[in-house]
Amino acid sequence: MSPRFGTAAGQQTTLDVDRRSNREAIGDLLPFLWPKGRPDLKGRVVLAMIALVLAKAVTLYMPFLYGAAVDALDQQDATQIVIGAVVALIAAYGVARILMIGLAQLRDGLFARVGQHAVRAVGLRTFRHLHALSLRFHLTRRTGGLSRVIERGVKAIEFLLRFTLFNIGPTLLELVLVAVIFWWNFGIWFAVVTLATVGSYILFTFKVTEWRIGFIRSMNQSDERAHSKAIDSLLNFETVKYFGNEAHESARFDRSMARYEDAAVRSTKSLSWLNAGQAAIFAVGLSMLMIMAAIGVNNGTMTLGDFVLVNAMLIQLYQPLNLLGFVYREIKQALVDMETMFALLGVGAEIEDKPDAKPLAAKSTDEKSCEIRFENVDFAYDPERQILKGVDFTVPAGRMVAIVGPSGAGKSTISRLLFRFYDATGGRILIDGQDIRDVTQDSVRHAIGIVPQDTVLFNDSIRYNIRYGCPDATDEEVEEAARLAQIHDLIVGLPEGYNSQVGERGLKLSGGEKQRVAIARTLLKNPPILLLDEATSALDTHTEKEIQGSLSVVSRDRTSLVIAHRLSTVVDADEIIVLDHGKICERGTHRDLLAKGGAYAGMWQRQQEAQRAEEILQEVAETDGFVGETVPATPDLIPAK
């Protein structure tokens, strides 16, 4: 039974978005502002804060220079104007603007390394966590949607760090200082109107933005679904072509994009309302303060320079305030983007090493092999349906044991349990007398090499895919493994040789070619245990015989567990185990099982009859003159079309 049809009790396979408070979410990011063990990044943060403080000080002083210049020009008699002083004030104003911009750019340049380090650290943490999650989790998730979640979440990190540090806090501080300046210079009512205007602006921004969050979340979910469908369709390009379903796939994608379009339009409309409301609130507040300043000038309590100063100070305050509205909206959207990623990081691994787990220690007398022992093993993907029931067998060191049986008998489940993609629900699995639950997963998987039924390759060169068995291997070692797998000569015959690209999931190669690459990288890994999981069941008879010869080279002097559908591939096994409905119903050598006349003998007879029928059909085709239309056995490693 495939694991996608069941879930273990209590196992989380979907992402439940954690609706935590914004303060907690931002709190998770604060350690990245002061990373442990990185004094260089801490120094950058300190210098960036110094540049920020200096920039704010210059920003607040600029309107005073501007106002003083206006007062210097506001003389009834032109002869009283001291042009040198005016020029000096204007020059000082210009220098202050340059300093303000320069310090802001210096601040951003200093902080860039800190922000990008955070993006890298979170991205790596998420990537590692994904690889630590169980096979069950990945079988229930869409890869395209998962990549979209990570992409948006990681991008939100740098934005949140930068604007939390450089915008929200400094803008609120600037607001308080402006209110104090107005109170000290022009009276308390200037401060009251300023605080009331900004308070109304912030309250309106927060309330409307909270209302918009639902639209943003809906937009992100629609985007994730559309991206998942696009990735899924492109990965299955050949299947789409086989069935001529391009129009069907386009319609599915268009429906997803239509939902995204509706959500995006609602989000844009709500943004328009937000921008209009913000502008109206600030315009009213600015008008009131300017009227008060005009009255002060008329009464003689304020100068024309003070009038200009109030206007300049408010316009200057409006810029970060306007940015504050933008930043709050973007922070809320970034938090939405991060919600699912935080939930992803919160998904617990189904299979974890024990705190005291040690690496697997091979104790076999033969250094090249280990003993495998299944002791009364039970397992179920779903508690309501048992897959393995009391499976008990031993694979002696250096020997070959084959497991056969009908589809759904639990053969491939045994390989997943041996690799510890899942833990047995009953009994135990031992390698050289050590329970694999008591040793590290990495050491168990390092000791096992597998040639699977469906070999999936990376979209890279043939050399890279073979070297994947041992990333530190030299080119000479890679080529030697290819020779042993009987593919070297065919590879060097290609125009680009070992640098030939295999395509997405290896689709440029035929089934036999991919199996030989899998054999070569297993040889390069050189594990003491070999697992062949129906390695030739998807191949034609001619290719199967060629691959079988390569597998014989791989399995020599190794403990081998062979899961097979075609019985002709396991006749030389030291022991054959027959599984039926999760139980061992027969065991013995090929000759012994045929003599018993039981389930194995019945399967053998049916397969022999099918093979004879195939041979008869071939003879009939040749007799009727259709030899020229039969498919010849072509050399492997010619890119599959």
Plain-language structure description:
The protein is of the alpha/beta class and about 650 residues long. The chain is built from 18 helices and ten strands. It has helices at about 20-30, 40-75, 85-130, 135-140, 145-185, 190-235, 235-245, 245-300, 305-345, 410-420, 440-445, 460-465, 475-485, 490, 510-525, 540-555, 590-595, 600-625, and strands at about 370-380, 390-395, 400-405, 425-430, 435, 450, 530-535, 560-565, 575-580, 585-590. The chain has a six-stranded mixed sheet with strand order 6-7-8-3-9-10. The protein has a four-stranded antiparallel sheet with strand order 2-1-4-5, with helices on one face. About 35% of the residues are buried. Mean pLDDT is about 80; it is low at about 1-20 and about 625-640.
Keywords:
single chain, 641 residues, alpha/beta, 6-stranded mixed β-sheet, 4-stranded antiparallel β-sheet, 18 helices, 10 strands, 61% helix, elongated, disordered C terminus
Choose one word for the global shape: elongated
- Secondary structure class reads alpha/beta
Helix content: 55-70%
Q: Which sequence of SSEs, written as H and E, runs from N to C?
A: HHHHHHHHHEEEHEEHEHHHHEHEEEHH
* pLDDT < 50 runs, ≥5 residues: 1-20, 626-641
Q: How far is it from the N-terminal to the C-terminal residue, by CA?
A: 32 Å
The number of E-state strands comes to: 10
Assembly of the depicted chains = single chain
The overall pLDDT average reads 79
What's the helix count? 18
How large is the share of residues in beta strands? 5-15%
Biggest sheet layout:
6 strands, mixed
Task: Please list the strands of the largest sheet in the order they lie side by side.
Answer: 6-7-8-3-9-10
Radius of gyration, whole Å: 36 Å
